[in-house]
Amino acid sequence: MSYRIHLVESQQSFEVGAGESVLDGALRANVPMAHDCRFGGCATCRVKLVEGTVAYEEYPMGLTPEEEGEGFALACQARPTSDLVISTERPGEPCAEPARHTAVIRNIAPLSADVVHLTLELPQAEALDYRPGQYLKIFTGDGIARSFSMASVPRDRTVDLHVRRIPGGYFTERLLAGLRSDDQLDVELPLGGFYLRKDDYRPLLMVATGTGLAPIKSILESLMDDPDCPPVSLYWGMRTEADLYLHEQIQQWGARLYDFQYVPVLSRAGDAWRGRHGHVQHAVAADLPDLSEHAIYLCGSPDMIRDARGMFLGLGASGAHIYADSFTFQRS
């Protein structure tokens, strides 16, 4: 059995087959629909059900029961159980169309024991045009594209990446170890719906785990020395103090950001650590019991994002002002 899906904004319609998700049906029909992770973690594909019902094989981590009760669904996981009329309207700004480029490696240097700073130059690009927070894909010989958030603002045709080494990973452990300056990589950018909403003047709450710091760094660099910069709180969750690969640099950001607060949180801190312990989302909840006025950016592990979304909505956060980018790591 198939169902008919109708989009309010574009007036486009398409069919979704039995067991197929709304997003899969849209992409098969060449109907554009915003999406990123495709496993229900980031909520980029969130839509509003105007008419009809859906079901899930597994309840997606990027959707709370409260949001579902308000009629929202995640298109990448939602299976129609009737014909649907959906609204895809989302706040945001126009982004540049993604394009393929040949990138040249300009620098490879360790940031920590398992994070590498990779600088790429796109010499043939007329100019870099992306929103701080977006990501690129690197295409390798095994036919699998790897996604990495850009950790810098657009400048001089170069982009910075924070690449976490994954044990057994084809790119991060095997291929990266053999790359040198002037080697070339095939890339595509810009991609993703996780980026700074400049027209949202709410105080910013930035919550990251691991290399989820990378797009947050890009966003905050774009606000440095900006007289319209809103208050910024950055909570960064890591396991140990040695993992805080930009700790000293971040502490200097306050000189160029308005009302900047930086709170590193360690889940496996040593005895010498005098800072916060535990999970980063719990530290936020302890410090900020009312999140009704914040714009919230979440980037990092799917578990953190799932828990933080539910917790922060319970503290009054607006679901329309929570932006998330869920990181998963490929071992192939």
Automatic annotation (TrEMBL):
Residue ranges of every copy of the FAD-binding FR-type domain listed in the record? 98-197
Q: Does the keyword tRNA processing apply?
A: no
Q: So which cofactors does this thing need? A: [2Fe-2S] cluster
Matching Pfam families: FAD_binding_6, Fer2, NAD_binding_1
Keyword Oxidoreductase recorded:
yes
Q: Which residues form the 2Fe-2S ferredoxin-type domain?
A: 3-92
Q: What are the alphabetically sorted keywords of the record? A: Luminescence, Oxidoreductase
Source domain of life is Bacteria
Q: Which family does it belong to?
A: Belongs to the Fre/LuxG FAD/NAD(P) flavoprotein oxidoreductase family.
> What is the protein's name according to its record?
2Fe-2S iron-sulfur cluster-binding protein
